[in-house]
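Exercise: predict the fold of this chain.
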Amino acid sequence: MLNLRDRPIRQKLMLMIMLISGVVLLFAFAALFYFQAYTLRQQSAHELAVVGQMTAHNCGEAVMFKDEEAAAEILSGLKTMPQIVSARLELMDRQRLAFFGTARDENDIKTARAAAGFQINGNRILLAQPVLLNGKREGTLYLLADLHAMTSQLLRLFGGIFALVLVASLLFAFVLSSQFQRFITDPILRLAGTARTVANDKDYSVRATKVCDDELGVLTDAFNQMLAQIQAQDGALQGAQAKLQEQINALQREIIERERAEAAHARLAAILEATPDIVMSADPNGKALYLNHAGRQVLGFTNGKDIRQLQTLDFHPAWARTIISDQALPTAVREGSWAGETAILNGAGEEVHVSQVLIAHKNAEGGVEYMSSVLRDMTERREAEEALHESQQKLLETSRLAGMAEVATGVLHNVGNVLNSVNVSASLVIEKLRRSKAPKLAQAAALLTGQNGNLAHYLTNDPNGQKLPGYLAKLGEFFIAENAELLEEADQLGRNIEHIKEIVAMQQSYAKVSGVFENLPAHSLVDDAIAMNVSAFERHGVVLERKFSSVPPVRVDRHKVLQILINLLRNAKYAPGSGTARALLLNYQSHPLGHQHELYVFNFAAGKSSHSRDRR
């Protein structure tokens, strides 16, 4: 909600008029309501007094004779008056003779007893009326009246009337203020509109229209006079501002160009100071002008040392000065630059070989203004060349050792494959020996030995003895089968050990030519690889089917190709699936740049096929 001070003046006047009208009506109706409430209370008290006198007169005989029924009947007649909520008739000893109302009302009557007269407490009026008979007081009549309902009814009535009168008066005030306030607001709004135009458009040539000769008319004249002075000052200020702006623009352009030049100079200086190369400059007579940080470190100069009186030729050994004087300087002056290899003396006086570029910087007339030179240390390069030569020699030796290591790796890999089978066979032999029934045979022999001299009777009549020949027969059959299995495993162990010898011998023959490319028949390579894995295939029940097409010899490294074929055959042996037939196919295809060799391993199972390919 906007602040009242920020609202338009027309709304302020309208709000003030309507607020004053409403407050005046509120006070008027409040005074009228309280007057009417006071009048109602006095009138009710008077009526209550009249009713009390009449009722007390009627109760005289009932009190004298202490007739409760007659007294209750008389009091019940008071119920017809809505303002009387309770009545109590009591004797002189304050004993109740008759009563109607609530317990709370009776408690209020007992609490506020009075000799005679009224007690007013808010909207409740208590009347104490003496009961007289022949001029003698026989008792007291208490009447309690509650004016809350009548007051509420009066309040609603006055509230409705107030609301109607307030709406009507506010509407009337709105209409009248709308008609008459324009005499006050229109001049002010026109003056405000002119001020808003001047503020928004910065147009000081506009003037406010004078409507009347009152205070607003004086304010309008002063405002127009002020606008005339501002217009004159603004014209002069704009002229001065235009000149000042031109000067500012020129100064900004100069500052921008200077900042660019300083930034470029700073970047160049940072590059020269950060580069590891030696950068120096000198005048045409050879006196040093600049030497970067790397040059100061090499030559042994501190950063604060003044070098402008030093000759740059003194930084070089004698033989290098000769090259610079006789070749470099004339070539740079003639062609603009010279590049070659020279040397420079470091802080310890030692020669440092450098590659040097000498540049002659000329002015517009073609004269040399100054010379600059860039020198790069060649020590690391020469050391790198020597290290490269040594590395080549070590590489030849390492290559020879690597070939030997590769042969050893191949032997270990293939021997390891066969040793797996040897380990399995040895484990089976140990397990069978552990489960041997030789102890059972010893137990049977002990039984026979224990029956020495009574063996025939034991074998024919004793139940255990009768079973012993059959048991020995079965035990003999078990030993025969066990002996056959152990012989078979021992034979398998012998074949595997013999196969290890063959692998070692074959690897030795191939290792002698490792790294050499030869023209070899493809099927011989495959046969050799199969021969190295044949025992493992037999042990796993793998069936091999060879299909070799007629292909020309291939130029390959015999050792590397054999290793690839052995690994592929071994992977195919462990391929998943039960009763799976596997086939190995080596396919050679002609290519314009030589032969392309592809080795396929196919697995067929349950009517499905898959293959892997290794291309060399």
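Check your answer against the key: The CA atoms of residues 441 and 475 lie 7 Å apart.
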